[in-house]
Structures are given as structure tokens and as C-alpha cells.
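Weekly puzzle thread! Below is a chain. First person to post its structure in C-alpha cell form gets bragging rights.
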Amino acid sequence: MNIIFFGSSSFSVPPLKSVSSYVSCVVTKKAKPKGRGYLLEDNEVKKTALELGLPLIEIISFKDEAARHLKDYSPDLFIVASFGLIVPRWVLDIPSTGAINIHPSLLPLYRGPSPIQWALLKGDEETGITLIDMNEKMDAGNVIYQENMMIAEKDNFVTLSDRLSRRSAGILLEVLDVIEIEGMIEGVEQRHEMATFTQIITKEMGKVDWSKSAIEIVRQIKAFVLWPTAHTLLDGIFLKIFDGEIFGSGRKELPGTILETIKDGIVVQTGNGAIIAREVQLQNKKRMNAFEFANGYRGLIGKILK
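Winning reply:
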């Protein structure tokens, strides 16, 4: 089977590796200049494709001339995993067998670009992996495979994404075995009336509103740990929080007040309850254990995070 693989994030890498022996070309989003030096940083999919010695096409959009060459590979199947661009109809019509999308949610829930973050923000107890027969609408194709996965209490975006990605790689091989023998799986139409949609994550979503409850803030920390990372201001300086949990406290100070520092971290009042921040990073400083940070920052207790 001749496959063209589309992906742009670290989530895409295990599925790509699992089917690499079938892949004739990898398509990924072209890097954009970042930082003061306008440096181009290769994404994990590009690095993997180069390591595997696979032909690579980088595009900004499907209007790019490079996208016109996809048909030159005469593919049987497209596999799309966390690609970051809507694939238009004329591209979906290229492969002879069809196009499969790997989506890390229990579709029709959480269609769109950030299903894993939204499952964590909502405090869901389970999520899943859905493979769909792609059409030109976003995440709306027939379901050809779906599997549930429990969300562990300790899960954050990184750990949950990693588990979903690695399991997707195994599922993909099983589904390919079926397609090779029987052709494209017809699948089951989604219950579109049940669909929910997620947003593109923005930097502003990471700002902590300390008037919210402890449970909401802990979910925010877990969902945005990779980017934009939950953040607040300490003495007017940007402070990121990478790890936190709900902390039992009967005190009721102003939301954002640092109540105490203990071996497990920094305890902060919220609008309802308290959290303990376990790992933090002050602007222009290194990421560190919150207890160690507290030992090096005098007068923390009583300060109000904003």
C-alpha cells in the first residue's frame, strides 16, 4: 500500500513511525520564523521524516505549488494525524482508496484543533481515539474505528497526548491490515447533532484568574502545560506554573494570596479552595521545583499573584 502521511506535531510521530514502511511521502506544515533572530525550527514530523529517509513536502497552505505534486506519488491512502490544516476536497480525491484522519477524542465530541486540552479543561474522566473516513468537513467523516481511554488523575496534556499517540500507532496498523484485504472501511455516520467544537489555543488562555475555583485552575495548569502554560504575575514579573494540585485549606484570603510555602510547593488561595504549585518558572529564570524557588525568593508569603 502506498501512503502519503500528513502531520505537524509530536502527536503525529508514533503513527508515522508505525506505518513508515508504507509511506512514499510525508507532508508537514512549513515552519514560520520565530524569535528575535527569526529562526526556523523544524517540527518533530520533519525531523522524523528526515531520520527515516522519507521524501518530504512542506507547505503553508494547499495553495502552494508543492501541494500540486501530491498526485505524482499515485497514493492509495492518505493518513492525517494532527496536521493543522483543513484538507480540501480536491486533495482528498487524489488517493485511490481514501483518506483517514486520526482524532484524539470520542467524536463527535471535541471536533477541532484542541480536543485533548478541552477534555482536560472539562475534567472529563475519559477520552479516546477515533479514526474517520475524511470528507471536506472538519472531523465530520464516518467513524471507522473508535476506542475509549481513561484519563488518569495525574494526566496533563503531555502525558495524555503521548498515551493517545502511542495507542493510535497500534490501532493504525490494525486498521491498515483490514483495509489492505477488504478495501476502505465504510464506517458509521457520526451523530452530528451531538457534535461539540474546540477552539485554537491562544496565549491569553494561559493567564490564571485566581477568582476561579481551585479545580478549574488545576485543570488549566494540566491542559496548557506545554503551551501557553498557566501563568500569573508575581511582583509584576511573569511566572509560569507547570504543575499543581488542589490543596486542602480552610483559610479564606484574597484570591491569589500565597498562603504558605511547604516542601511540596507554594500554596495559593483561589476563589474556592487552594492549590499547591509544584513546579514554576520566573521570567528569565530556569524552570524549577516550587519549594526550591520559594527558598530563593524572600517574602513570598502574603504576596498576591495577579
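Puzzle host: Confirmed. Bonus trivia for everyone else. The CA atoms of residues 99 and 299 lie 58 Å apart.
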